[in-house]
Amino acid sequence: AMPSFNHLDKNALGDIMAYLRDGFKGTTIGTGKKKIIGSEFNGKHLFERTCAQCHGKKGVGLNGPAIGNKDFLTNASDEYIWNMAAYGRSGSQMKGNLHGQNGTSDLSKKELNDIVSYIRTLEKKSPHLNGISTIPGDVDNGRIYFNEMCSQCHGIGGGGGNGPGIGKKGFLQSVSDGFIAAMMMSGRDGTEMKKFGRGGIVEIDGNTAMNIVYFLRNKDKSEVGKKYVVGTPQNGKVLYEGQCIQCHQKGSFAPDLMRSAFVKAAPVGYLQATMSLGRHQTAMQSMIRGNAGLTELSSKEINDIISYIKMGKE
Questions:
Q1: Class of 139-223 per CATH?
Q2: 186/171 Cα distance (integer angstroms)
């Protein structure tokens, strides 16, 4: 278990962080520059056989994300893509494909190199989804069902809440209709998003799911509410004192999160993303369940902490 470092002063902790940042500079998997060489031709056939059923032809996205998206490919290194393909992603439906991983496929390292090389070619001709629905639907019916079943987590018009802002332009431009519908019908492993298909917490049919997708794609901009967070400050106080204060107390090496200027300036979405994903090249690691980070909090517990922080005064 990770022990407490309360016996060290802020200067000592700062020295440790400076050493870590200097010693491991440039080795982060998401941003490494090492180029993987493989056969683009063979990779295309392997991708279509192994990956396209989830990520779509040319990576446009189906029930898996649009990995052919230029924004993704610009920010993801070859090593990152290779590791996701080889070992899967914790807390998601993405399983490993490398030989011996007991995943969805049984590929060699060379074959994975070929797939990565092919995926890189998509960056030059990245699919443009433009947030436009590719299926017909009933926007009014979709609005009714979204408001009844989805808005309590995803916010008014998908503006974001305890769940992500699935009605926002940035999200809609990076995913396909099939991906959104599949997440509704099947849920997402390792998250609080449960399935709405047969045997789910609510049962909807495929037509209703597509109507919800059509609503998200075709709603008026005025229907998208501001991101909000629902949490219990009392529980957040207990969690903050148990999980956060050892680094973020006044005078420590990490920011004082209870300072009124910070509380006013930090958007809820920024706090949620930072606690869930961590911050690159800092000591702040993921705190969300399933990410093998500092601790294992649920999204509700993270929102409880944020609700407590937002009540903070200097």
A1: mainly alpha
A2: 19
- Evaluate whether 40-125 and 139-223 have a shared fold: yes
Domain 40-125 of CATH type 1.10.760.10: yes
Buried b (16+ CB within 10 A) or exposed e, 211-239: bbbbbbbebeeebbbebebebbbebbbeb
DSSP class of residue 94 equals -
Provide the 3-class DSSP secondary structure of residue 201. Answer: coil
Alpha-carbon dihedral sign for residues 229, 232, 237, 241: negative
> pLDDT 10s digit of each residue in the chain, 314 long?
354 555 566 566 666 765 555 544 443 344 456 789 999 999 999 999 999 888 888 887 776 777 887 777 887 889 989 998 999 877 667 888 998 888 778 899 999 999 999 999 988 765 555 455 556 789 999 999 998 888 877 888 888 876 788 898 878 877 778 778 888 888 876 677 888 888 877 788 888 998 999 999 999 888 887 766 667 889 999 999 999 988 988 888 888 888 878 877 777 777 877 887 787 778 888 888 777 777 888 878 888 898 888 876 44
For the chain, domain boundaries: 40-125, 139-223, 233-309
| Residue burial 251-276, b: 16+ Cβ < 10 Å; e: rest | eebbebbbeeebbeebebeebbebbb
pTM check: above 0.85:
no
Give the distance, in angstroms, between the CA of residue 42 and the centroid of all CA atoms in the same chain. 30
Q: Which CATH number fits domain 233-309: 3.60.110.10, 3.40.50.1820, 1.20.1440.230, 1.10.760.10?
A: 1.10.760.10
